[in-house]
Amino acid sequence: MSDIKTEDNDDFIVSSSDLEKDEADIAFEAKEKKKRKSKIISRIILVVSACIFIFAAYNLISILLEYKKGNDIYDNIGDTVLDDTPVNISIGDDAEITIPFKYDHQALLDINSDGLGFLYIPSLDTRLPIAQTTDNDFYLTHTFDKTYNSNGCVFEDYRITDKLNANHIILYGHSMNSGAMFGTLHKYKSSYFYNYDGNDVFYIYTEDIIKEYKIFTAYVSEPISDTYTFNFISLDGLRSYANRMKALSLYDTGVNVDKATQVVTLSTCTNNGKQRFIISGMYVGETTIEDFEKSSEGTTSANN
């Protein structure tokens, strides 16, 4: 193997084998440096991923705890306001039906003076208090007992006069992922669900009266639309409105609204909050809690 002699220093001689060793060392060092850099990046990615996972888990747990807190609040309200004694009633020409509880309006007002009544949707087993205040914001983030919570509360549009005696009542409620509030209302997008026996009605208790409503339409609306028309000055205006909303239905309910005297609209978010899902019911008739008691006494006497 030949030697290489430098021009400037005859005494300094570098062999080709030394050069090969230096190049190998440099290559090795570069490779090791790359490995160390790769390990550092991998560790950073691991730490960041772990932080993201912990943050996501924390948020999920917080959401679940928020859901539970809201559900517990409404369970407690139900325990206070509703007596789980089943009562048989009949409204109008309808066959006798069983309401699984009796409602105490004063107990509701003792919790919150904004209370108007109680909404009951048998098909969804939805039992929720209704409130009305001076804006449409407060009950988006507060439960019926005014606790700050994402469940919010079912509330009537504050601009509607005559409260639950208005000719058009609009009730808002969140569509919770947990299924709480109006979270299961979307089931009415299916005609099959609507046509199942008994799924075409809902009820509102107010003071000593329970009112029955026949669902005549189910449709998707924009957040700002004719859906949210209220305080009609005549029954003709209300009936014209009801027919227009019926024409928007996802399916034909077969309900005639030409003689409607009152309409209740339930509104909740759909399509990631971009639109609203609506169901509306027409007033059918009513009975009183006193009639509940009489019917219960009559049933007891018959059994004896």
UniProtKB/TrEMBL annotation:
The keyword Isomerase does not apply. One of its GO terms (molecular function) is hydrolase activity. The keyword Transmembrane helix applies. Keywords: Hydrolase, Membrane, Transmembrane, Transmembrane helix. The active site is at residues 174, 269. The chain crosses the membrane at residues 40-61. Pfam families: Sortase. InterPro entries: Sortase, Sortase_dom-sf, SrtB. This is Sortase B.
